[in-house]
Design brief:
This protein is of the alpha/beta class and 406 residues long. The chain has three domains: 288 residues, 4-Layer Sandwich (Purple Acid Phosphatase, chain A, domain 2); 72 residues; 41 residues, no CATH class. Helices cover 27% and strands 24% of the residues. It is built from nine helices and 20 strands. Strands 6-7-5-4-1-16-17 form a seven-stranded mixed beta sheet, with helices on one face. A six-stranded mixed beta sheet has the order 8-9-10-13-15-14, with helices on one face. Strands 18-19-20 form a three-stranded parallel beta sheet, with helices on one face. It is elongated. 34% of the residues are buried.
Length: 406
C-alpha cells in the first residue's frame, strides 16, 4: 500500500493581516499532484486540518472541504482514500456540523471493519480501521489530539492542569494498548499509528521547554516497536524521533509564521505491506513541496529602501515583516509606509522606530507638541526643505503676515 503522510494543514489560516487561503490551497493541489504521480493509495493527514483562527467559520471549513473534494476527484475515482484525524486546532462542534452536510464519513462506531475506498474520512475520536490498497491490507490506529474532556471520567477532580494532562496521557496510552489487545485487532496485519500529539524528545520552535502544564506529553514508551509506521502531527518541525526513521513528524503544508521562515516543507512517502519483510515498510522518503517565501527585513536607514527590490526578487509573492528606523530629517512615516506597501504587497506587518542619538536618546525633530502652528511650520520646513531658500522665504512672508493679524 502506497501512503503519503502529511499533517497540520491549517486551512483557512491568517498571519496578521494576511489571509493564507490561496497559499494553502496551492499546497493542497501540489500534494494532490504528488498522489497522482506516485499512484498513492492512502493520504494520511495527522491532525489540524483546519486553522482555529477566530475568523474561520464552519462555512469556511465547508468551502475548504469542497476544494479538497474537487482537487482530489481523480484520486477518489481510482479508489484513493484520505484518512484524516482532528488536532488541537480543529473545532469539534464545527467538524460534526460540516460532516452532516458533506460527503465525509465517520469511522464505524464499533468493531474493526474495512473502510470503503474512494472517499475522505475525518475522525475526531479514537478509532481503528482497516484499508485495502495496492494488493495489501493495512490496519490503522487513529488517535486525534487528546483533548482531556474526551477521556474524562465521572469522578475526575484534578487539582491542577498538570495533573489533568498527566492523567489524560495515561488514559490515552491505556486506550492504545487495549485497542491492540481487542479481539477484532489483527496482529498479523501491518499496523500504522496515526496520532496528533507531542512526544518527548521532539524538537520544536519554542524557546521554552514544554511541560505537562502546557500540553499533553507522551514518553517514547508510548510508541511500541511493532508499528510498521508512526504518522505524527502537532509539531511543526519536520523530523524523525529517537533515531527511528519510521516515526515521523512531516511538519505543516506551508510556513505558517516567521518562526518557520527557514523550514523546508514536504510530505513523507512510503509503502506498507507484508511483502516488505519483518518491518513491513520501505524506507520513508521525503518529498519536497514549494513553501511560501518569508522574510524578516530590517531597514536601518530609509536610504536602504531603494535597494530592497534587488535584494528580494521574490517580493511579489513573499510574506514579509519589516522594521524601519526613521531618521531625523528623513521621509515621514506615511511616505515610507506607502513605498513599502507598493514594494511588498504581501506584507504582514510594518513597524517603525526612531533612530537613537549619540547619547542614546531619541533625536530631536525640532517639532514640539506644545508649539503654536507658526513655530511648527517653521521647524517642519527647516527639517524637510533646509536648502529651499525660496520656499522658506515665501513661508516666512506668510507667517509674518498672520502674526501681524489681531
Amino acid at each position: 500500500m502506497k501512503i503519503i503522510h502529511t499533517a497540520d494543514w491549517h486551512l483557512g489560516d491568517h498571519l496578521h493581516r494576511l489571509d493564507r487561503t490561496e497559499d494553502l490551497r496551492s499546497r493542497v493541489v501540489e500534494v494532490a499532484r504528488i498522489c497522482e504521480e506516485r499512484v498513492i493509495d492512502v493520504l494520511v493527514i495527522a491532525g489540524d486540518l483546519f486553522s482555529d483562527h477566530a475568523s474561520v467559520s464552519a462555512e469556511d471549513m465547508t468551502r475548504e472541504l469542497e476544494h479538497i473534494q474537487k482537487v482530489y476527484r481523480p484520486f477518489f475515482q481510482r479508489g484513493g482514500t484520505i484518512l484524516a484525524i482532528t488536532g488541537n486546532h480543529d473545532k469539534d462542534k464545527h467538524i460534526e456540523f460540516i460532516r452532516a452536510g458533506m460527503l465525509l464519513a465517520a469511522m464505524p462506531s464499533s468493531g474493526v471493519k474495512p473502510l470503503s475506498p474512494g472517499r475522505m474520512y475525518l475522525q475526531n475520536g479514537p478509532g481503528i480501521a482497516v484499508l485495502e490498497g495496492g494488493g495489501e491490507k493495512v490496519q490503522f490506529v487513529l488517535v486525534p489530539y487528546p483533548n482531556p474532556y474526551r477521556y474524562a471520567e465521572a469522578n475526575d477532580a484534578f487539582k491542577s492542569t498538570e495533573e489533568r494532562n498527566r492523567t489524560t496521557t495515561d488514559r490515552v496510552g491505556s486506550w492504545v494498548q487495549k485497542a491492540i489487545d481487542k479481539p477484532g485487532f489483527d496482529k498479523t496485519l501491518p499496523s500504522v499509528l496515526v496520532a496528533h500529539l507531542q512526544v518527548r524528545g521532539s524538537e520544536t520552535h519554542s524557546l521554552y521547554k514544554i511541560s505537562e502544564t502546557d500540553d499533553v506529553l507522551f514518553g517514547a514508551d508510548f510508541i511500541p516497536s511493532h508499528w510498521a509506521y508512526v504518522a505524527l502531527g502537532h509539531i511543526h518541525k519536520p523530523q524523525s524521533l529517537g533515531g527511528l526513521d519510521h516515526v515521523r513528524y512531516p511538519g505543516p503544508l506551508d510556513r505558517l509564521d516567521f518562526g518557520e521562515r527557514n523550514d523546508d516543507r514536504g510530505v513523507i512517502a512510503l509503502n506498507v505491506g507484508k511483502q516488505y519483510g519483518p518491518e513491513c515498510r520501505t524506507v520513508p522518503e521525503w518529498v519536497p513541496i514549494s513553501p511560501t517565501p518569508m522574510h524578516l527585513i530590517a531597514v536601518a536607514n530609509t536610504a536602504e529602501i531603494d535597494g530592497l527590490p534587488e535584494k528580494y526578487p521574490d517580493r511579489a509573492t513573499a510574506i514579509v515583516k519589516i522594521s524601519v528606523t526613521l531618521e531625523a530629517g528623513g521621509p515621514s512615516r506615511d511616505e515610507v509606509m506607502q513605498r513599502l506597501k507598493k514594494m511588498f504587497p504581501r506584507y504582514a506587518e510594518i513597524v517603525f522606530a526612531r533612530a537613537e542619538t549619540s547619547d542614546g536618546g531619541t533625536p530631536r525633530t525640532g517639532i514640539r507638541s506644545d508649539a503654536d502652528y507658526r513655530t511648527t511650520v517653521r521647524n517642519y520646513l527647516k527639517i524637510k526643505h533646509p536648502n529651499d531658500a525660496a520656499l522658506l522665504t515665501l513661508a516666512e512672508t506668510f507667517l509674518s503676515t498672520t502674526e501681524a493679524q489681531p
